Queue: 2 jobs
Job 1
Amino acid sequence: MHSSIVETTPLAQTVEVSDSELTVGLVDGRRISAPLAWFPRLLHATAEQRSKWELLGEGEGIHWPLIDEDLSVEGLLAGRRSRSG
């Protein structure tokens, strides 16, 4: 019997931004958390700006239009920090 691994693209479903942490809930049930210090635009944004986010594509990324910040789920899973400042 052969088994194959079905790879699926991790997709965001929920986003929470506190004063110190970004937490993204994925459609498969996982949650990714990272320190807000990794994302300077989010760190320096107001609570209102942080709360206005939208999913990119089917959830491959997250966009904050009020601060022009984009993060990919793949990058979050890889532990990549934002290049923005």
Job 2
Amino acid sequence: MSMESWHERSKTVQIDGRALIGGMRRDAILGARFDCLSPIDGRKLAEVARCSDADVDAAVTSARAAFEDGRWAGLAPGERKRVLIRLADLMLVHQDELALLETLDMGKPIRYSRDVDVRLAQNCIRWYGEAIDKLYGEVAPSPQDSLALITREPVGVVAAIIPWNYPMLMAAWKIGPALAAGNSLVLKPSEKAPLTSLRLAELALEAGVPEGVFNVVPGYGDEAGRALGLHMDVDCIAFTGSTRVGKQILQMAGQSNLKRAWTELGGKSANIVCADCPDLDAAVAGAIGSIYFNQGESCNAPSRLFVEASIRDAFLDKALALVPRYAPGDPLDESTVMGAIVDATQMQTVLGYIEDGKAAGARLLAGGQAARIETGGLYIEPTLFDGVEATMRIAREEIFGPVLSVLSFTDLDEAVRQANSTPYGLAAAVWTADIAKAIRTSRRLRAGTVHVNQYDNDDITVPFGGYKQSGNGRDKSLHAFDKYTELKTTWIQV
């Protein structure tokens, strides 16, 4: 579709900002709303229900009733499977609409919203649908006069709180396994990008998910999010977002009913390029493409680049030649590869880190400025710092923007030590032609995912999550069922 066509369609797209509770669209009980603004040009997209305690309680009550009467949990696995696969099919039917909502709402390029986010999100739902009737229990090695069964049961009412950087995909990572396991769900999207979550819930109803099983309560974290965290009838809460808020979620779980709390949090991923890397051009393309993808608004973005000193100059020359390809453009133009920053608050945060890096003595080699100001939107140039020291804030704190910090090393052991020296442990990478070195380094890197001679390759079959303050639990793969099920032992005396 041409840029003109996407712009024309954006003028007529129908947006309903009301919550979805018990199978019905509803305004917030107190009538509060907030404006949903597009970072592309600052225009108002919709007024969205600002849910609070009363709305959350209504959603949880609806989810509990649906769970207890078995309208979803009581279905045969094959029935739930057919519904989730139907939902995945509907997501493909509506892929242009979902992609447009995602791009308008949070600013990512339309080419990625459609060809990456929608495709991966529907594949996630489909994969968990397919997995439903392929999960088996266990028979324990009990004495001859006994039979011990180990089975999985849904945990009950699941609350899911998702971030704004990949709203559709992060929702799917929660929706897929939670519903596949037979739970009821209350989803709270970020107030910065709530639109695709609301539409997905409508499509779920159309696919056959019973009313009350999948509820969506848009609103602010300190209102709707806090109400979910403290609710006494939520059995499990799954959160993806900042480490600061993740700590609050864990505290609220303890303050309330000791609900199971799973978190996928921040990152400051290290990308280590050794002098013997097998393909320097590939290493450069991987480093640059991964940090500027999604405007740098990725928890696993490789924002710390460690380059062995003997190849540093050659690496930087190649990197600087690639940076202009990521100049921000119109997100509704299919040739654009970097779009808008999600909102003004995040934009000021990123620009603040850039100023801090300059003040600390790092060398700004590219970018560092706001861009496309005349559009009324929120854009930042792809930014690259060299001469970064490990003690600088830009090398220690998560920026969540298109900012790359380059550090040099001569000793791999020291590079690994610095890579591990942050509170985070979400992802890392090492580039080397020496397989023994790759294995040894991978084992020493304290991260949930370690990439070797590539960055960010993965799929739904492998788990995603972090060490340390990057969170607990895992999204994706069959391991995600551990978050949304209880293990039951049934001991039968024969």
